[in-house]
Amino acid sequence: MVVKIGAQSLALLVALTFVNGQYTATYDPNNLPGTTEQGQTGTNACGTGNNQTSQCQNLYVNSAEDFCLWGPPDPNSSVGTVEEIVVAYCTTPGRGTRLFPAGTLISAHFLETPDYIQVTGTGQLTNINIAAGDSGGELDPHGADGFGNPHGGLVFSNVWSGKTGLGQQIHEWTNFMSDTEYCIRVCKDGPNAAAFCQHIYDIQGCHFNIPGDYDAGFDDCKGDNVIPMGLYPQPDGSTSTYVNGANPTPAPQPPAATSSCTPLTSSVIYNGAPAATGSASGSGSVTTAPSGTRSAGGGTTSSPRSTSSSSPNGAAGFHGAPLSLLLSLLAVTISIGFVF
Ligand SMILES: *[C@@H]1O[C@H](CO)[C@@H](O)[C@H](O)[C@H]1NC(C)=O
Ligand SMILES: *[C@@H]1O[C@H](CO)[C@@H](O)[C@H](O)[C@H]1NC(C)=O
Prior knowledge:
Signal peptide: 1-21
Bound molecules: 2-acetamido-2-deoxy-beta-D-glucopyranose
Protein name: Carbohydrate-binding module family 13 protein
Structural class: mainly beta
Number of helices: 4
Keywords: Signal
Organism: Serendipita vermifera MAFF 305830
Number of domains: 1
Region (Disordered): 238-260, 276-315
Order of helices and strands: EHEEEEEEEEEEEHHEEEEH
């Protein structure tokens, strides 16, 4: 089933989380409290050290050599079952997080567009406690219980605030992790953020949600926005919206054109390991997912993420919502007369 609604109505709908230009809470990365949400197992007051037992739940996404991903706190974990308690693994020391062990990141492609930043790539992500063979899960700030996955997880970037220091909190983000592939998108605060960081397609994986470069290499690129995940422009000017469960799943949107890509010359993100190009050298056990055959957080029809249906991560009433509910939501949205 594909629902056809006007692009304007859709914009009204997705803007609901951004009310009067303000988010409900904004934290200063230089002055964080111990915790920020109920039921939080880790901490946001992480100090300036580093260790591999840290429970820090602050993510920083600034460039291909300075970013973090969510990973399980304990070894051999399925992302879907620990999504409420994942912790931060980072390239960059000094922020109280865990670090990616040497050789974890096999590729990393940072992309900055007008409305979002993202990092896409592959890795030996069993190094950050993801069980071998785990097809993965999705993390976002809108858990089924109204809290984020992880509870209390905060994301910061300096990309829109001068590109130095810890930057500012960014409120909309989505991250897919499997044992071999990852993708994270962080959306510039504003009325477009919820659409570009839509989080309801949580079993569709990286390529559907975050089109980008998953091939070998490490670089920083600029590029255009891709139309938000799940939206398909029609010849008549309307926009079709993919609804979870619809069959067949439409093809992922192609990645946008990139420009001014700068390959990383520093080896800092490898934590001392030799730069791998596609497959890690010196280890017969590394298995790199061939691009396009498997996608973090789902992607294979034969092995959907087992917990996905129990963790909608969705805006209330939207995930898997029947058409009538979706349309009445739209009607409500429009009758509120939301303006921005
Ligand atoms: C990981 O956990 C699974 C079951 O949860 C178990 O069968 C497997 O042996 C474990 N692997 C390692 C390396 O501990
Ligand atoms: C690990 O790092 C966390 C966060 O900075 C800190 O609270 C904890 O005390 C550290 N643990 C050790 C054993 O150093």
